[in-house]
Amino acid sequence: MGKSNGKSEVEKAGLDLEHELPAGDGAESSPAAGEGSATAAAEEASAVAEELRKVKAERDTLLDRLARAQAEFENARKRASKEQQGFRDFATADAIKTLLPVMDSFERALQAKSGANDFRSGIELIYKQLQDALAKLGVRAIPAKGEPFDPHYHEAIEMVETSEAADHEVLEELQRGYKFKDRLLRPAMVKVAKNPGK
Predict the structure, then answer these.
(1) CA–CA separation, 73 vs 103, rounded Å?
(2) pTM (predicted TM-score)
(3) In this predicted structure, what is the pLDDT of residue 52?
């Protein structure tokens, strides 16, 4: 009778004694599972740390390459600037050499003791020499008087009402304009006709 009471208490507790695992086995396996997950976490942390080390090394390499590239660019820019200045100096020296004979002629004219007519013809010769030197350098005078007004090459100082010239014709050149090859050095200062009837 006591047996049946014991059986019913086990049954009441809902335990299946035949299929239940021994208590000792369960207690031993639980810490082992915890150790396995801790080892996996440590390995993963180690892998992340290694990856981070690689990324940092790659970053440092790239920063070093960038610094070198910037230094090379700065050196190249300085070299190019120095070369350009050298070309400008060479071109200026060449232009000055072309003008030196004109300076020589002015000095000779100022030292000469001669009459007004001789002095004037000497100045005219020097003026012609200067024009030739400038032409050799590629400088050309801009035609103005009698030409139609061109705002690209002429600067109108005054508009003059007249019936003796076409509308917008240049009547007078007050200061000559010059071009260097196709580049405008300075516009010609001119008076322009205003004649709406023509």
Answers:
(1) 44
(2) 0.54
(3) 94
